[in-house]
Amino acid sequence: MFKDLPPTPVADKRPVTDTRHGIERTDDYAWLRADNWQQVFQDPSVLDEGIRAYLEAENAYQKQAMADTEELQKALFSEMRGRIEEDDSSVPSPDGPFAYGMSYVTGGEQPRFFRVPREGGEQELLLDGDAEAADKAYFRISAANHSPNHARMIWGYDDKGSEFFKLQIRELGSAEDLDDVVENTGGGGAWSPGSEGFFYTLLDENHRPSKVYYHAIGSAQADDRLVFEEADPGFFVSVGGSKLNDFIFINIHDHQTSEYRILPAGDPQATPAIVAPRQTGVEYDMHEGGDVFFILTNAGGAKDFKIVEAPVDAPGRENWRDVVTHQPGRLILNHMVFANHLVWLERENGLPRIVIRARDSGEEHAIAFDEEAYSLGLQGSYEYDTEVIRFSYSSMTTPSQQFDYNMRTRERVLLKTQEVPSGHNAEDYVTRRVMAPSYDGVEVPVSLLYRKDTALDGSAPCLLYGYGSYGATIPASFNTNCLSLVDRGFVYAIAHVRGGKDKGFAWYEDGKHLKKANTFRDFIAAAEFLAAEKFTSADRIVAEGGSAGGMLMGAIANMAPDRFGAIIAAVPFVDVLTTMLDDTLPLTPPEWPEWGNPIASKEDYETIASYSPYDNVCAQNYPPILALAGLTDPRVTYWEPAKWVARLRAMKTGDAPVLLKTNMDAGHAGASGRFQRLEEVAFEYAFALKVTDKA
């Protein structure tokens, strides 16, 4: 499998001892964290040379270890690129006199933003991402928001991968940028109704959006007015507007509590007013509906959420009135408000549907589909006074379809079907949803995709994907990339483990904080079930997850290394205890509700210490492991996977390789271009094929 490997890089051991709650812990590789990490995010060239040398040695090692797959990587990349419609274009969305859309050109890496007259006419190019990205190793556009008067556009970009976004203002008539440059922002802005300025969030040096400013067009950023500042580092701030352009919404939130402050959109000098004071464990999200707000909330014990309304002039919690009552097991995911209709996306029994209610009569109907597993996306509309919304549908065998839907007549119009230029016949594939019993008898949904001619006798390799944190649900949607594995005989599987919201909010609660171990046990149970049912065999399963899903990979590697043939951990959150003990890191205080606060609580410390992948590496035989990192990643810092790999090498038994690939020009999301990203996927898939002898 891996032959004639060079000597592995060896990281120096420089022990650092830390004592908390009377518990002593020694970290041999803490030095891999750069003291000037904030500066590295802004300018990677200032990285300590010793750290850089180690990361580059790891890159050289993995490159040599994977050298025999270079032709396979090229073939995989060519296949995946061949499934992309290179000159793809979205269906423009109407807003006033124009319709706005996004497109790509053949060979282009970055999106282009355009508009056309609403009733038809010549396309006007507003922003050319390829031109803006020229000569940049990394480039990502975060926003392209046109103004209410259609004369200007806020657009944001990051050219380091660190997610410190710059905002610029473009005159749409001339396609030229004004001198205004607003730096270190969250990536977008909310326009004032008169289009003379916008609201945005500013990131502090620890990468936390804690302040909202108002920028008047033509002024310097130093003169921007501070509208709101959040003092608690455990809460993040975001800002947005309403479809009617009447209000600016300031959303203050962590992972379990939220608070809104609002101000009249036309009065940037106003003091934001609190809607409902934050109350630990109570979340709410709001939209304007004329003289009322419609608010999605879990207040009053509505674990799976309900929708209430409140008068605009008195929106406090004491005036909330239920309009869509709470139903246990029916999780309301999000909602939208229009002049005549209230719309929401819900999930019940693991499947989504869109529900539409007429505001005058209360009559409801739903949009649903019949496949065993599928994905729905509610895209809504720019406009408030409309009868038409837009949504998308796909399944693991069905390419994405985009529809316009008339909420009054119930007419559904297919606007676009995802093209697969190299060809795709859905009849060649099978998609299923099976239930894997976990250690405690709870049934874990697993979505499957495989070719009809794949032998289900235990011989097929399997890529088993998992996430299971923050309540995120991994949809059973169409993925052209995974066909490169499925067409080579793989079973592609998604384990919908606890920690997501696949089976309601309780499914999330049962996989977070003190119950986090359920996430790991569910994933192991899914692997055991797939092997027992002969979809695959234990030594043929390649487990994959990224970010918090990478933490899942690290945990199952420690807990059940013999249940997996290999593990791919992308930007893995594996040094959980150290990170949660460091309140200077960007995400640490806002993450305490998810994982626990080991600074304040000995119980939380011991719980995290019991599963933190880095802390639980031990002398056992691990399967082959591939870890991927981004140097400027502000979410999972590069040193987490670097330290993890160093410790695995030092402690593991057996000769299975551990590889670390660090993208020295990117952050959490990896390469920014659409084809550059495919090269990374091709590399991961080549590893999966190599370790299962399918290369």
Automatic annotation (TrEMBL):
Region (Disordered): 1-21
Keyword Hydrolase annotated: yes
Residue stretches of biased makeup (Basic and acidic residues): 11-21
Record keywords: Hydrolase, Protease, Serine protease
Stretches assigned to the Peptidase S9 prolyl oligopeptidase catalytic domain: 477-693
Taxonomic superkingdom: Bacteria
Peptidase S9A N-terminal domain ranges (all copies): 10-417
UniProt key word Protease: yes
Pfam families given in the database record: Peptidase_S9, Peptidase_S9_N
Gene3D superfamilies, sorted: alpha/beta hydrolase, Prolyl oligopeptidase, N-terminal domain
Family: Belongs to the peptidase S9A family.
Official protein name in the record: S9 family peptidase
Organism the protein comes from: Hoeflea poritis
